[in-house]
Specification:
Length: 321
């Protein structure tokens, strides 16, 4: 009986330690690193979650913008942080796509971070500056084909999801558009609004105020169905390219080795915030869909997305490094 007794005691002690760790965290302010400049979708979602998380955790939640190298600067910093749940990373889909184009920079970081939850998703919207005269996607494609290399598109950086989405669109539409990479969504939007660049596959959330104000025109959205926030804008699939579907997303990660009860509580608290009717309605108005997936579900999403975009990088022979 002694081995069984010892096993039960060890199990009880482990459960007690597990519970104690969950109760003790957080013991100090929680820092959420946003690896992009202010003004992008990741920064926006982080700041919307900030008040609810502060209330739920009973600690100050600090949003810390650490931009550079397509998000790798901030991501690397979090990957080196203590795995105690007090330093977290909020990212979007470029977290998966950037290392495909810059494997030496990104691959090591991926192994040092653990999924917590996928927070939300939204389609990208193809928006054009006022100097682009095409009234719809069909007319734009005709212009692009008749004047190759005349038009350009902005992205949040080489290897970003809106970069690969644009390459995906160029592939299916047999068009040529010049790539102009930026260090984040905010600077890219500024030049798009100023007419320095012609178009961009921009997050539906970030595009919305500019489209409503008439400063940008939305020609198509990339989701499988139309977002309620863009009910009058057809999808790329509806516009003649069946099967075209891209969803942008925002997620939360922690340094690998962060205790499971800490990750579980983080996921649970984010899910509660997302489920609140007022918060959910605010997201929907912006074109976002709240998710709040488990760490396991988010991990599977990351793997699936990586496989999909790796195929595109190979097919398009995009430059690496």
């Amino acid at each position: 009986m002694k081995p069984l007794f010892s096993f039960l005691v060890a199990g009880a002690m482990s459960l007690a330690a597990f519970s104690l760790h969950a109760q003790a965290w957080p013991a100090k302010p929680v820092r959420i690193v946003v690896p992009f400049p202010p003004g992008g979708i990741v920064d926006m979602v982080a700041r919307q979650l900030q008040p609810g998380l502060q209330q739920a955790l009973g600690q100050t939640v600090i949003i810390d913008n650490k931009a550079g190298a397509g998000g790798s600067v901030g991501s690397a910093e979090v990957s080196r942080a203590p795995a105690d749940g007090h330093t977290l990373l909020m990212v979007f889909d470029s977290y998966v796509t950037y290392p495909l184009v810059y494997p030496r920079v990104g691959e090591g970081i991926l192994k040092k971070l653990a999924p917590v939850t996928q927070i939300a998703s939204n389609p990208l919207v193809l928006v054009v500056s006022p100097r682009v005269t095409a009234p719809d996607l069909k007319a734009l494609v005709a212009q692009l084909r008749s004047q190759p290399d005349k038009f350009n598109y902005a992205t949040t950086g080489a290897g970003s999801s809106n970069h690969l989405t644009a390459e995906y669109f160029k592939s299916v539409s047999a068009t040529q558009i010049n790539h102009v990479p930026y260090r984040g969504g905010g600077p890219a939007q500024q030049d798009l609004l100023g007419g320095q660049v012609d178009m961009m596959f921009l997050s539906a959330v970030l595009a919305q105020p500019h489209v409503k104000a008439g400063k940008l025109r939305a020609l198509a959205q990339t989701g499988a169905q139309r977002s309620p926030a863009y009910a009058g804008v057809p999808t790329v699939a509806e516009s003649g390219y069946p099967g075209f579907e891209v969803e942008s997303w925002v997620g939360l990660l922690a340094p690998a080795g962060t205790p499971a009860p800490v990750i579980a509580r983080l996921q649970a608290e984010v899910a509660k915030i997302l489920a609140a009717p007022v918060f959910r309605a605010r997201l929907e108005e912006q074109g976002l869909k709240g998710i709040g997936s488990t760490p396991e579900q988010f991990g599977q999403t990351l793997a699936t997305e990586r496989q999909r975009w790796a195929r595109l990088v190979a097919e398009r022979k995009l430059p690496l490094e």
